[in-house]
Every structure is written in C-alpha cells, then in structure tokens.
Design brief:
Length: 249
C-alpha cells in the first residue's frame, strides 16, 4: 500500500517503463505544497548531502518505506526521526553480524554500504519528521498532495496495559537512557513512535540474550523487569506520542 504512490509517480514520470524506479522520483511541481507558512511539507531546498541520503535510502525504502516510516505493522521498524548515532551503530552491527538480521544483511555488506554511506543515510533518516496527526488540507490541495501527506502521518495505536504503572516503571528504570519522553538520548534509541510489535520483539530478543541491551547476556535491566511491567511500559509509550500530538494542536 505504501509503495503505491511511488509506483504511480514512477509510471507517470518514467514514461510508463516497466521497471520500477530505483528511488522515488522528484515530486512534480503541482504536487508540491504551496510555500504558505502552515504548509505541512514546506521545507528549504534539499542539500547535496540530503539528496545523497535520499538516493541511498532508495533501496531501504522497499522495506522501511520512502519516509522511513516502516511497514507491515512493525515487521519493518520505523527509522524516521530515530537518533542518528543509534542508526549508525545498528547498521555497523548488522554489517558485522553482531546483530543478526537476515533480510538486511546483504544491504549492509561493505560493497553495498561503506561507512560513508552509513553516515549519510543515517543523518538523512534521523532528519525526517513524521507528524502524528493529519495536516490541515486546503480546498485547493489535489488528491495526490493529500495522499502523499497522509503517507507520512505516523500514529502508533494504543495497546492494552496499565498506563499509570507503565509510567512509574519507565520513569524509574528506563528514562536515564531513553529519555524522560522516550525520545532517546545520545546513542540510546527513541522508543516513542516505534511500532509496539517491533519493540516487543526486540525485548524478547534481549531477554533471550540474542541481542545485547545494556549488558551482554541475560543479566541486563530488562531481565529484571516483570513481563507485565514491560507490557505496561509499551502501553505508556503509545500515550506519550498522543500527548505530543495534542500539544501540536
Ligand atoms: C529486505 C528488507 C529490508 C531492507 C531492504 C532494509 N532493511 Fe533495515 N530492517 C529490516 C528488518 C526486517 C529489520 C528488523 C530486524 C529485527 O526485527 O530485529 C530492520 C531493521 C533495521 C534497523 C534497526 C532499527 C532499530 O530500531 O533498531 C535499521 C537502523 C535499519 N534496518 C536500517 C536500514 C537501512 C539504512 C537500509 C538501507 C541501506 C535498510 N535497513 C534496508 C529489513 C530491511
Ligand atoms: C543503561 C542504559 C539503558 C537503560 C536504563 C534502558 N535501555 Fe533500552 N536500550 C539501551 C541501549 C544501549 C539500546 C540499544 C542496544 C543495541 O545496540 O542493540 C537499547 C534499546 C532498547 C530497545 C530496542 C529499540 C529498537 O529500536 O530496536 C528497547 C525496546 C528498549 N531498549 C527498551 C527499554 C526499556 C523498556 C527499558 C526500561 C525497563 C530500557 N530499555 C532501559 C540502553 C538502555
């Protein structure tokens, strides 16, 4: 579903060639937001570095989405707005097979992804902001403009859990690294706005010692937290994102 507009644009602008475009083509002038102050996608012209990042992201987009929004309900994690230092760390760790990820492994091999490209694509992805509510459309916005803008809206649905308890445990055990509002810190990842199913899968991997969290093996902080508390934390994290959306109104 996410690739539909890319394909559409590809068909429109690649002269209906059969091969899908390697990267998303530039938007036609008509689909660009007018430079009004409240235009949701109004941005300064992209730098050369940003263009390079977008180009590298072309292969990542097949799984993680054109805007790094992730997909398939968390099978592919969101990368947009994630901390750059963390993205770099993880890409190097996939490449070195320290973090095992079969779907991604070929894309991270030295020939495919040298350090320089890891830098560039990580900065590019970290710089993408995904709104948590639909923009206010103008009557003059056409269907394509609306479709493209809606593609970016990223809302993680609420999940079951005791939010009050989740808050208590999170603000005691997790905030020091992941930040008071779950947006991460330094190389510690942002957890807010990430798919719950993906986070859950990672916690399971940490608990089994398949992926090191704060400690090698199974002696880290997550191994000391009750299963119910983890669920409550995940529920709490989805409310932080809503709080942000409400503030933006
Ligand atoms: C064939 C599909 C596929 C492609 C292409 C792909 N990825 Fe991934 N990626 C995945 C999957 C699946 C995961 C989640 C692995 C897991 O569950 O541990 C992932 C995880 C990640 C993570 C870890 C996110 C986190 O929160 O820890 C990063 C960073 C990442 N990918 C970056 C990239 C970049 C950059 C590219 C392009 C150079 C790329 N990926 C290409 C499938 C893909
Ligand atoms: C001492 C610092 C520290 C504390 C405290 C901490 N974490 Fe983490 N967390 C990390 C680091 C470092 C990573 C990245 C690990 C890696 O490289 O794979 C991480 C990653 C994660 C991830 C995976 C994110 C992703 O995108 O893949 C989840 C989920 C997570 N932490 C949950 C928690 C929860 C829940 C708590 C509180 C119970 C917590 N963490 C407390 C350091 C910490």
């Amino acid at each position: 579903m996410r690739v539909l507009p890319i394909l559409l644009l590809g068909l429109l602008f690649a002269g209906a060639q059969a091969a899908p475009p390697k990267q998303a083509p530039a938007r036609p002038a008509s689909a660009r937001q007018p430079p009004a102050a409240e235009a949701p996608t109004a941005a300064p012209a992209p730098s050369a570095e940003e263009e390079k990042g977008r180009e590298i992201n072309g292969v990542c987009a097949a799984c993680h989405g054109e805007f790094g929004q992730g997909g398939k309900r968390g099978e592919y994690p969101r990368l947009a707005g994630q901390r750059a230092a963390y993205l770099k760390d993880q890409l190097k760790s996939f490449r070195a097979r320290k973090r095992i990820n079969l779907p991604m492994y070929p894309y991270t091999q030295e020939r495919e992804l040298p350090d320089e490209d890891i830098e560039t694509v990580s900065e590019f992805l970290a710089g993408i902001q995904l709104p948590t509510r639909p923009p206010d459309f103008k009557d003059t916005d056409d269907a394509l403009t609306r479709l493209l803008a809606m593609e970016r809206v990223m809302i993680i649905p609420r999940v079951e859990g005791d939010v009050e308890n989740g808050k208590k445990v999170y603000q005691k055990e997790c905030f020091s690294c992941h930040g008071r509002t779950g947006r991460g810190r330094g190389k510690f990842p942002m957890l807010v706005g990430q798919y719950t199913s993906y986070l859950k899968k990672q916690v399971d991997a940490y608990l089994k010692g398949e992926r090191p969290h704060d400690d090698e093996g199974t002696t880290g902080i997550l191994n000391r937290i009750a299963e119910k508390d983890i669920q409550d934390i995940l529920a709490y994290l989805t409310t932080l994102q809503e709080a942000e959306a409400a503030e933006a109104k």
